[in-house]
Structure formats: structure tokens, C-alpha cells
Amino acid sequence: MKDKKDDESTASGVSRRQLVKYAGVGATFVAASPLAASSAAADSGDGRPGGGSRGRVWRAGDHHVHSEYSGSFDTSVNPPRFQKGGDAVYPIVTNAIMAKNFGLTWAMCTDHGGPNHSKVNLEQAYPDLLRSRELVPEVLQFWGMELDAPALDHHTLMIPHHRDEAQQLYELERRFAKQEAFPKDPGRDTEAKMIEFLKAAKTMRQKPLVIAHHASRSATGLGVYGQDTPREFRNGNNAAPDIYVGFEGAPGHQAGPLVGEARGSYGNYPTHGGFDQMTARVGGLWDALLGEGRRWWITATSDSHVHWTRGGSDFWPGEYSKTYVHARQDYADIMDGLRNGRIWVGTGDLITTLDLTATGQRRSAAMGENLTLSRRNRTDVEIEIRFRPLAGKNANGDRPEVNRVDLIVGGITGPSSNLDSDTNPTTKVVARFGRRDWRRDGHEYVIRHTLRNVESDVYARVRGTSTDEAEPLADGQESPWDDLWFYSNPVFVQVR
């Protein structure tokens, strides 16, 4: 006899029976709260100061998700034989269903490359993506891959949604992925090849996006970098500033401590509060890049391969980490938001909206935007921070609370003569706000702070936490659910 519970809808609107049908054998269902799911497109008010457009709200997504097409290769034969499920195990549609369940409205399939993998993507994975788009239309599903980037660790290669998207990825992967050639070609694994790739991408009418993954995973100490270095980020961003736009602030594999592994799979030098050292250290590399005036953004992803309850170290897309983009539910606008820094990131659904605005001389700007002031008069800049806490329970069944919010400000001094520089000594936490320092405005909390007599270029960014740590501490085996943070991207202030 059929169990009545099988036909009950989950928070995603998909029945458990449908979930089993579409997700395939081995998928684990974890119910998200309706409040967490609805937070994906939470309205941040009547439009953002500084240029919010009609229909734009905060939409949660994930640009780093693996499917069964992150497989293995039998190189004993020529051409190498591809086998599905060698690294990640879930069908593309399973990831889309779970993304929807955990409140995402956009996501991206980013499978590993390998010898002749461009044909696998074109002939096998892409048709499955098209079917997944039909089955789960509520989630905008971007096409792309986790590029085995020349001379670097993995990167998102996000292709714009258009008629020839599959061919565009095929051409870029075939020409530039360092693992594509068989036998291996050392000439593909050079920084010069990476620059060639970025310049080729820049000339395309449909411009892709490139974002570095787990940038310090191979670092052996604080400021002792591995595959990805400050020099390479600067050179790549110089070559294609509208293509190569950032790195993961919070890498995936955040469930590691739940199975006795390092958070984020950072086995050499740990994450701090779940965030990469390049982001977490105030005045560190991210601030050094922002201090040059670079539009360099951070994101947060799941890097989902296998769920932690099934032997992996991962959460489902959206279960723990979310990248929020201020956009319409439209492929082009979400990609525009990612390209232009209309982004904030969070873990554990600590909050569901975050707005940061700077106002001066009757002008305003928000995250990713630029406030231009006249030098004729010394000007105070009013900073407003608005956030909405989660009203219900997160995916762990907790009701997280914000304990503190920090306002971080740094000077913009122009390009550094030292391409290896990873510090910005002007960057400081200028104010810390506790629960007594914010006031309620409807469903949101509001914090205001004045930057006095702003005479030179600066940027401001925000972070917040559920913890009492003054600075995010190096991660050990604590549960990731007990160590929640959110980070904004910056707003820039120029004095002219």
C-alpha cells in the first residue's frame, strides 16, 4: 500500500516520490525549511539606493557544483575511455532538485576536465543539462565547467546562456584546458597559456566569467601560497578585467569536520571561519586587490561531489553556503550581477538579505558600485547596513542569530608596483556593532555609521558572525553550523 507521506510536498514543491524518481539511486533527501527556501529571492525593499532596477532582488545560487560527469578516465586505451561517477556521483537533475529544495534560484554545473573531455561535455553532459532545465525550470542552470586552468588550480568557467553555449564551451575547453590533451602537453600548463585563454575569452561576443576556486587550498602557511598566487591574479585580471573577476571567499567541502576531515579540504593551512585566508584576513590579499581599485569579488559555493551522509565531505547546493546576487530571475542579469559585484555571501542561512550603501553629496551607491564625490568640500559619507535574519530554522534545524557586524574600510591607492603584494595596511575594522547597536525596521535590522571627512578614495565592506570571535579563527574540527559568517562585496568611494 502506498505511503501517504510519499506524495507530501517538500519545501521545494517536489514530492518525495518525484524526488526519488528524478534524483536516482543513492541521493539523500534533507528537508529544508520553507523559510530557508523562500529566502532565495528575498526582496531587499523598494529597490537599492544607487541604481537598483525593477525586479531585482537577492537571488541565491551556487556556481560550483559537480555531477556524475566529473568522472574518471581509462588512459590505457587511445583515445581514453570516460567513465561516469568516478569523482562525483549525482545526475545533473539531482543537483538541480536539491538546489531548489535548499532555496537556490540559479546554479551551475562545473564538472572536471580530462583527456578529450570537451567531447564528453558536448555529447553527453550537455543533453542531460537540457533535460534538467526542463524538469526543474525554477532553477536557472548555467552551462560551464570547472576549468583545469593553465598553471593554476581549478576555476569556474561560466558560459552565458545562448543558443551556441555548448559549442562555446567546447571550443574553450578543447583549446585551453590543461588536461584536455592526450598525451599530456606541458605547453598547456603555463601562465602564458592562461593569459592567452583570458584574452581569447575577452574577444568573444558572448563573454564568459572566470572565478578561481579554493584559491589557498594548496597554501602551506599564512601568506605562503601554492598553485594560485597574487601575481597570477593580478596578471589575469589585467588581461581581462571583465572576465576574470574574483575567487571563492568561502570554498566548498564545508562538511569536512562532520566526517573528521579538514573544512574545505584545506589540509595544509586551514580556512578561517570557513573562509579562505585570502578573504578572511583583514588587510590581506583581497584587501590588497581592492586597494588597487580592482573590481575583484568573492563568492561562496558547495563544491558538491558526494553528500557527507553518503561518504563525502559536502553539503548539497544551498544547504550551507549561498552566493546571493541582486538580479532579476534571468540568466543575463544574474551573470551581470556576478560580473559587477552585486554579490554577498553567507553560510548556514545566518541572514537572508544584506544591503550596504554609501551616501554623500546627495548621491548613493551600493555593493559593486562607485560613489563619486567632489573634492571641493570635505565630505562625510553615511554608511547604511541592512540585513534580514532567518525567521525560521536552517537546514540543520537551528535558529541562527547574528552576534556582531563589522564595518571594514580600506584606502584605494592604485596599482601596486609589487605584483606579489598581499597586504593593504590601510584596511581596518573601523566599527563593530553588537545587538544593541542595530534597530528594527520591519523585517530588517539597520545599522548606520558616518565616515568623517573623506578626502581620498576608499572602499567599504561588511562581515557578520554568529560567534564571539573578534577575528575568524583558524578552523579545526568544530561543527561548521556553530561557526557562521556573512561577507558583503565592497562599495567604492571616489573623490574627484
UniProtKB/TrEMBL annotation:
InterPro entries listed in its UniProt record: Pol/histidinol_Pase-like (IPR016195), TAT_signal (IPR006311)
Source organism, top-level taxon: Bacteria
Region feature (Disordered): 38-58
Entry coiled-coil feature ranges: none
Protein name as it appears in the record: Phosphoesterase
Source organism of this protein record: Streptomyces zinciresistens K42
